[in-house]
Write a structure and sequence with these properties.
This protein is mainly α. It has 5 helices and no strands. The protein starts with a helix and ends in a 5-residue tail after the last helix.
């Protein structure tokens, strides 16, 4: 019972570790480092990130798009589409909020 609960917690924790998209943490770390100016003194780093981000974003979106099949969307019903719309709305709203909150800090 107590050891069973411990095993269950460990397995849940392991599941979270295995399925968590770690690129999110790396993205946040890079965003923080860029915000505090860590890359300003490195020759070419800022230019690399400015030109490279378009390619990386396009590649990521293409990867997501290639996994979507219209037949799957139609057979799953409206719920995934509503979830995607809600997710898009949350990302758009939070992005605009953060842009407005931190606009005065960006020179």
């Amino acid at each position: 019972s107590a050891s069973n609960k411990s095993n269950k917690k460990t397995s849940i924790w392991q599941t979270v570790i295995n399925v968590f998209p770690w690129f999110i943490l790396i993205f946040l770390l890079m965003a923080i480092l860029n915000t505090v100016g860590a890359f300003q003194n490195i020759n070419g780093a800022s230019k690399f990130f400015k030109t490279g981000y378009k390619f990386l974003i396009t590649t990521a979106l293409a990867g997501v798009g290639f996994k979507i099949h219209l037949k799957d969307l139609l057979t799953k019903g409206i719920k995934p589409i509503i979830l995607g719309g809600c997710t898009w709305l949350a990302v758009a709203t939070s992005s605009l909020l953060f842009i407005n909150l931190f606009a005065s800090y960006v020179g």
